[in-house]
Write a structure and sequence with these properties.
Number of domains: 1
Radius of gyration: 17 Å
Distance between the termini: 20 Å
Order of helices and strands: HHHH
Number of helices: 4
Helix content: over 70%
Strand content: under 5%
Length: 83
């Protein structure tokens, strides 16, 4: 992303993301995800917990990169359609 796209992306994440978190449908999905994760992590051995703790930030970084990429592609599609 260029600096302009990056600025727009962070603006959306800061100002629009909270709206998603307030939507009931999202809250139901997030709660279900969290319950499944809690049930899973309760079964972890110490070694599995250590491995998961190393995995989680890598997974979050990959997800963030995916979101930035999709935003970039969506932004350019919007520019193309606006012409």
């Amino acid at each position: 992303m260029n600096k302009y796209e990056e600025c727009l992306f962070y603006y959306i994440m800061e100002h629009e993301w909270p709206d998603l978190l307030e939507q009931e449908a999202y809250q139901v999905l997030a709660e279900s995800r969290d319950e499944a994760l809690n049930a899973l992590t309760e079964t972890f051995t110490p070694e599995q917990r250590r491995l998961y703790m190393a995995y989680e930030p890598r997974c979050n970084a990959a997800c963030s990169a995916e979101m930035r990429h999709l935003f970039h592609k969506s932004f350019h599609l919007g520019l193309h359609l606006a012409r």
